[in-house]
């Protein structure tokens, strides 16, 4: 991750983006629990008070990072599955892409799921997360023949399975090999296909 320049654009109104960038950098280095606004200020070379003009506390900055994470995840899902016409195969591709996102963007994954943010407290985060939800729900709606509880149950099951595979991959090691990543992607995709095939059991 490229570090924000000490002479960077935040002097001209770009401080919020610079803070998000440096937060991601620092979380990648030390984890979300160790991150603080004061540390981000020092790294950027601005006063300790400067971030508070844009983020009223640490959680507000983390919510902005999480919104960035949702945008990155949504783009990754679209790139991997947007061209796949068959909805069942699209769900398999989405699941593999979700695992890849966790591998490629561990700091963003940690902020989304390890920071303790309550999404309902941050409307901008809810809005950023909606395309991710829609990415899974849309093919499930097609598989189930229309919108409704069955499609929602399937979407939740597929997304939860993808998340579980991603979390297990990240928990295995700080530096995961390409072979382990490929296996995790394949397992997540296979699980999605199995859930589609056995979706009737989800209503029981």
Produce a short descriptive summary.
With 204 residues, the protein is mainly alpha-helical. The protein has eight helices and no strands.
Order of helices and strands: HHHHHHHH
Number of strands: 0
Any low-confidence stretches, pLDDT <50, length ≥5? 1-9
Radius of gyration over all CA atoms, rounded: 19 Å
Number of domains: 2
Structural class: mainly alpha
> What overall form do the CA principal axes indicate?
elongated
Mean pLDDT: 88
Helix content: 55-70%
Largest sheet: none
CATH architecture name of the largest domain: Orthogonal Bundle
Distance between the termini: 46 Å
**Beta-strand content bin:** under 5%
Question: With helices defined by DSSP (H or I, 4 residues minimum), what is the helix count?
Answer: 8
CATH topology name of the largest domain, in short, is Tetracycline Repressor, domain 2
Top CATH class of the largest domain? Mainly Alpha
């Amino acid at each position: 991750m490229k570090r924000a320049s000490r002479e960077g654009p935040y002097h001209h109104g770009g401080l919020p983006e610079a803070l998000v960038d440096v937060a991601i950098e620092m979380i990648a280095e030390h984890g979300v629990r160790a991150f603080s606004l004061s540390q981000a200020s020092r790294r950027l070379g601005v006063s300790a008070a400067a971030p508070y003009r844009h983020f009223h506390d640490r959680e507000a900055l983390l919510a902005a990072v999480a919104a960035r994470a949702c945008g990155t995840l949504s783009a990754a899902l679209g790139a991997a599955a947007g061209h796949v016409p068959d909805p069942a195969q699209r769900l398999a591709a989405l699941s593999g892409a979700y695992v890849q996102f966790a591998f490629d963007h561990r700091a963003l994954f940690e902020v989304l799921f390890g920071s303790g943010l309550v999404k309902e407290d941050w409307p901008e985060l809810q809005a950023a997360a909606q395309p991710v939800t829609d990415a899974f729900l849309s093919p499930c709606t097609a598989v189930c023949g229309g919108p409704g509880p069955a499609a929602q149950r399937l979407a939740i099951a597929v997304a939860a399975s993808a998340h579980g595979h991603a979390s297990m991959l990240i928990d295995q090691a700080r530096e995961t090999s390409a072979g382990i990543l490929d296996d995790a992607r394949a397992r997540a995709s296979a699980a999605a296909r199995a859930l589609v095939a056995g979706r009737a059991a989800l209503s029981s």
